[in-house]
Amino acid sequence: MRRLLVTGGAGFIGANFVRYWCKTYPDDRLVVLDALTYAGNKQNLHRLEKNPNFSFVLGNIGDRALVDKLLISENIDTIIHLAAESHVDRSILKPATFFQINLVGTFTLLEAFRQYLETAKVVNKPLFLHV
Fold it and tell me: Can you give the residue ranges of every domain in the chain?
C-alpha cells in the first residue's frame, strides 16, 4: 500500500491521475494538495469525497509547514508533483508567481521530502515524480 501526496490534483491532468489511481489501487492512501488557482477545480474530485482513502487539502506547495505536516501525519512515501504555472502567457504577465510556484514551490517539496525521509519509517521505496 502506497501513501501518495499529489500536488495540483484538482487540475485537469491531476484529477484524471487521481481518479485513475483511486480506481486502480483502491487500498492506497491518496492526499491531494491544491491551491485551487485558475487551473484547479475541486469539483473534478467530487466523486472521491466519500472514499476513506482519499482526502483533499487546500494549500500551497510553497507552505513548508503545511507540507511537513502532511508528510508526517500521512506517512507519505510517494509525491506526484503536478502543481505548476504552465501557461506561457501567465509567465509573461506575472513572472513572480511563475517563479514562486514552479521553482521555489518545487524546491520546497523536494527539500521537505528529503529531510522527512532522513527520519521517516516508510515501508515502500520513496518516489518523487515531477511532471
Answer: 3-130
And the C-alpha cell for 57? Answer: 487539502
Which residues, other chains included, contact 9 with Cβ-Cβ below 8 Å and sequence gap of 6+?
15, 17, 18, 32, 33, 34, 45, 56, 80, 82
Task: Report the topology of domain 3-130.
Answer: Rossmann fold (3.40.50)
Mean pLDDT score, 31-45: 91
> Do 97 and 85 contact (CB within 8 A), yes or no?
yes
Average pLDDT across the chain, whole number: 91
Query: What does DSSP assign to residue 104?
Result: I
Residue 39 pLDDT > 90: no
Report the pLDDT value the prediction gives residue 93, as an integer from 0 to 100. 79
CA 24, CA 71: separation in Å to the nearest integer?
A: 23
Three-state DSSP class for 55?
A: strand
Region 103-113: mean pLDDT is 93
78-81: strand order across its sheet: 54-58, 29-34, 3-7, 78-81, 127-130
Residue 87 has a pLDDT of 67
